[in-house]
Specification:
Blueprint (H helix, E strand, L loop, with lengths): L3 H30 L3 H27 L19 H28 L3 H31 L3 H11 L6
Helix pairs in contact: 1-2, 1-3, 2-5, 3-4
The protein binds fe (ii) ion (FE2) (2 copies).
Length: about 160
C-alpha cells in the first residue's frame, strides 16, 4: 500500500513524463519544419520513450491498487532560436526530471516505501543515460558551431538512432 501523498507524487510524475513526450514531439515538429529530419526523428523516438516512461508510472500506480488520474498537459514551447537551443532545452528538461525522480526517491525513503523506491531505481539509472546522451549532442553542437556542413552531418548522425 502506498500513501496518498506518494500516490499524488507518482501521478504528478506520470504527467511530467507525458509532458516530456509532448515537449519532444514539439521539438520534432520544429526540427522537421527546418528539414532536419534526422534530428526530428531522434526527437520522435525520444518522445515515444517518454510516453513509455509515463506508462511505467501508469502500470505501477495500478499495480499498487490505485487508479491513475490524468491531468491536463502544459502547452509545450513552440519556437527555439536554433536547433542547438532546442537540444539545450532538452538537456535542461532532463536535468529537471532527474531532480523530480530524486525527490520522489527521497519521499519513498522517508515513507519507508521500499517497493516504490525499488520501482524508482529504474528511473534513476535511466536519467543518468538520458542526461549523458543529450549532453553529448549538445557538446557536438558546440563543436560545430554555425557551419551548415556540420549541421548536415550532425543531422545525418542523429537520424541513425534506432537503426540497427
Ligand atoms: Fe522520462
Ligand atoms: Fe527523459
Amino acid at each position: 500500500m502506498i500513501s496518498k501523498k506518494m500516490e499524488e507524487a507518482l501521478n504528478k510524475q506520470l504527467n511530467a513524463e507525458l509532458f516530456s513526450s509532448y515537449l519532444y514531439l514539439a521539438m520534432a515538429a520544429y526540427l522537421e519544419d527546418l528539414n532536419l529530419n534526422g534530428m526530428a526523428s531522434w526527437m520522435r523516438l525520444q518522445s515515444q520513450e517518454e510516453y513509455e516512461h509515463g506508462l511505467k508510472f501508469y502500470e505501477y500506480i495500478g499495480s499498487v491498487g490505485k487508479r491513475v488520474k490524468l491531468e491536463a498537459l502544459e502547452t509545450p514551447q513552440f519556437e527555439w532560436k536554433n536547433p542547438q537551443e532546442a537540444f539545450e532545452a532538452a538537456l535542461a528538461h532532463e536535468k529537471k526530471i532527474t531532480k523530480n525522480i530524486y525527490d520522489l526517491s527521497d519521499l519513498a525513503v522517508d515513507e519507508k516505501d521500499h517497493a516504490t523506491r525499488n520501482f524508482l531505481n529504474w528511473f534513476v539509472d535511466e536519467q543518468v543515460e538520458e542526461v549523458a546522451s543529450v549532453t553529448v549532442i549538445v557538446e557536438k553542437f558546440k563543436m560545430v558551431s554555425d557551419s551548415k556542413n556540420s549541421l548536415y552531418l550532425l543531422d545525418k548522425e542523429l537520424g541513425k538512432r534506432g537503426q540497427k
